[in-house]
Structures are given as structure tokens and as C-alpha cells.
Specification:
With 166 residues, this protein is mainly α. It is built from 6 helices and no strands. The chain has a single domain, classed as Four Helix Bundle (Hemerythrin (Met), subunit A), CATH 1.20.120.
């Protein structure tokens, strides 16, 4: 029997409160639903932080002529949030019309962040109301965009927010 086991047993017998590091309560494993909800929030909060953080004067930058500019990458993530929300709610979504709706919008950080923030709030509410297996596709897809954004940060000599010292 280890010293820790003996100490826990003696403390329990004597009614002594243990330091929190020694208290071991059985943990319930996370459910599919809680895992999807937490992953959804974490992934999209990282992307929203990047939209708020990336220098606005570089929003038009793109790594290759055939690539999306940063502003378009952020807006594409927002469209993904809106599409997944519509899917969860069982409402139709016209992807091409939605892309066209971005054309006249200002290409500013404030515009992009406000739209993404609203889309994220709506999506979190829909995900929390009932995560579905289709969200695994969306998490995978949005994570690809997150990866591209991280690479774009690095190509611009910027450390992504998640990699900065805390």
C-alpha cells in the first residue's frame, strides 16, 4: 500500500480534511454532447480572437493569388457558423446568396468581428439546444480554416494568440 493511500485512509478515519490535491472524486466521463459543445465553443472562440487580433491593415493579405484574403477567410468561417446553425434548426440556407451578400460590406475588422460574434452566439445557442453528429463535419471543416489562419499569422511574422506566452 502506498504512503498516499495510507494517508488518505487515515485522514478519512480521523475525519481530517485532505488538501485538494489528495481528494479524489470519481469523474464522470464527458458525454458526446458536452464534448461537441466545448469543442465548438473553443474552436470558434480562437478564430474570433484571431479576427479581433489580426492587423486590420493586413486584412487584404493572402498567401497566394488563388487563396482567400484574410478578410474573406474570416467571413467564410462566419458563413460556416450560419450554415451549421441553419442545419441544426432545419432551416434552408442559400450559400451562393450569402456569399454575394458579403460583396458590398465594408472590409473592416469591426464589420467582420461583429458579424462573426453574432453568428457564433447564434450557433452556440443552436449547438447547446441539441448537438447532432453532423457537427463533427463542421468542427473538422472549421478547424481546417483555423489551421490556415495560424499559418497565415506565421507567414506574416505574427505569433497566433494561442501560442503567445500567458
Amino acid at each position: 500500500m502506498s504512503r498516499t493511500t495510507v494517508a488518505i485512509a487515515l485522514a478519512a478515519w480521523a475525519g481530517i480534511a485532505l488538501p485538494s490535491a489528495l481528494q479524489t472524486a470519481p469523474q464522470t466521463p464527458p458525454t458526446f454532447e458536452s464534448t461537441v459543445i466545448n469543442t465548438w465553443k473553443s474552436l470558434h472562440n480562437k478564430i474570433l480572437t484571431m479576427a479581433k487580433d489580426f492587423p486590420e491593415d493586413k486584412y487584404g493579405w493572402k498567401p497566394h493569388p488563388d487563396s482567400r484574403a484574410m478578410v474573406d477567410e474570416f467571413r467564410h468561417v462566419t458563413i460556416g457558423l450560419e450554415m451549421s446553425t441553419a442545419q441544426l434548426k432545419g432551416t434552408p440556407f442559400d450559400y451562393n446568396a450569402r456569399i454575394k451578400a458579403d460583396d458590398p460590406k465594408p472590409k473592416t475588422r469591426a464589420s467582420v468581428v461583429a458579424e462573426m460574434d453574432a453568428a457564433l452566439a447564434a450557433s452556440v445557442a443552436a449547438v447547446e439546444a441539441g448537438p447532432k453528429p453532423s457537427l463533427v463535419f463542421w468542427i473538422d471543416h472549421q478547424a481546417e480554416h483555423y489551421g490556415k489562419l495560424v499559418s497565415n499569422y506565421r507567414m506574416n511574422g505574427i505569433v497566433p494568440p494561442i501560442s503567445r506566452p500567458r
